[in-house]
Design brief:
Helix 1 crosses helix 6, helix 2 runs parallel beside helix 3 and helix 4 packs parallel to helix 5. This protein is 35% helix and 25% strand. It binds nicotinamide-adenine-dinucleotide and the ligand O=C(O)C1=N[C@H](C(=O)O)CCC1. The site of nicotinamide-adenine-dinucleotide has 26 residues, from helix 1. Catalyzes the conversion of 4-hydroxy-tetrahydrodipicolinate (HTPA) to tetrahydrodipicolinate.
């Protein structure tokens, strides 16, 4: 496929390596909105929270299927879905494209469902990322928190504050060079259960995004990584 990389930073460059290894060509390496999307068969957006919606809607308007991994723009997600449906386009967003994290999402939901009957355990979450990250908490932490809230009746929201009524507390730490670590902890007076996913580098996110692009090409609709990986 002829791929447009919308965002040619840490992720764009890692996706380029994986896409070339898998036989694709890169026709656009955008660092701003100065590009002509119609040159591409498909676009992969890993840009910035303020740029993502314009990039994605530009693709949909021009009938170019688009994958987005950019986080921190989800206030515009519903509008994007409506546009994609109206234009009969193709779109996938995932807060995390790593295959391991997508298994971790399933584990998190299953654990939350079991723990819902054990109200002595309090849930908390910690995410750690590199210091250049623009958004907090991470998109992945928000997905994990929303999945817990769906299963666990003690929580109806998440918060970066630690002691908020019915809110699942998330701690967001920024440490140089950390690609992404997410932990969920259930703590009672007698013991603790922790589950953690640790990314060792950005290759897993990039591989998942290229697999999603290969899967989306030729389809119409709005999809998620659950559709791509056929898990759960
Ligand atoms: N979903 C996932 O699996 C996943 C994994 C890693 C990172 N991310 C997210 O991807 C995004 C990018 O991460 P990164 O580490 O590569 O950031 P980065 O800062 O290294 O790169 C961002 C790039 O976007 C470019 N950019 C700015 N405005 C643009 C525009 N209008 N059009 C196109 N490009 C533009 C910048 O010049 C830069 O090259 C972040 O939102 C991050 O949270 C998601
Ligand atoms: O490096 C980042 O930025 C990451 N962003 C995603 C998130 O916000 O969850 C995925 C992990 C890496």
């Amino acid at each position: 496929m002829k791929i447009a990389l919308l965002g040619y930073g840490k992720m764009g460059k890692t996706i380029e390596q994986i896409a070339l290894q898998r036989g694709h060509t890169i026709v656009i390496k955008a660092k701003n909105n100065n590009y002509t999307i119609t040159e591409a068969d498909i676009a992969i957006d890993f840009s910035t929270p303020s740029a993502a919606y314009n990039n994605i809607s530009n693709c949909i308007e021009n009938n170019v299927p688009v994958i987005s991994g950019t986080t921190g723009w989800l206030e515009d997600y519903d509008k994007t879905v409506a546009l994609c449906q109206e234009k009969k386009g193709a779109f996938i967003y995932a807060s995390n494209f790593s295959l391991g994290v997508n298994v971790f999402f399933e584990l998190n939901s299953y654990l939350a469902k079991m723990m819902n009957t054990l109200k002595d355990y309090k849930v908390s979450m910690e995410e750690i990322h590199h210091t250049q990250k623009l958004d907090a908490p991470s998109g992945t932490a928000i997905t994990l928190a929303n999945d817990i809230i769906k299963e666990h009746t003690s929580y109806n929201s998440w918060s970066l504050e630690q002691e908020k009524e019915k809110a699942l507390p998330i701690t967001a730490k920024r440490t140089e060079d950390v690609p992404g670590t997410h932990s969920i902890t259930y703590k009672s007076d007698v013991d603790t259960i922790d589950i953690t996913h640790t990314a060792h580098n950005r290759q897993g996110f990039a591989l998942g995004a290229v697999i999603a692009a290969e899967w989306l090409y030729g389809k119409t609709g709005v999809f998620t990584m659950k559709d791509v990986l056929n898990i759960s």
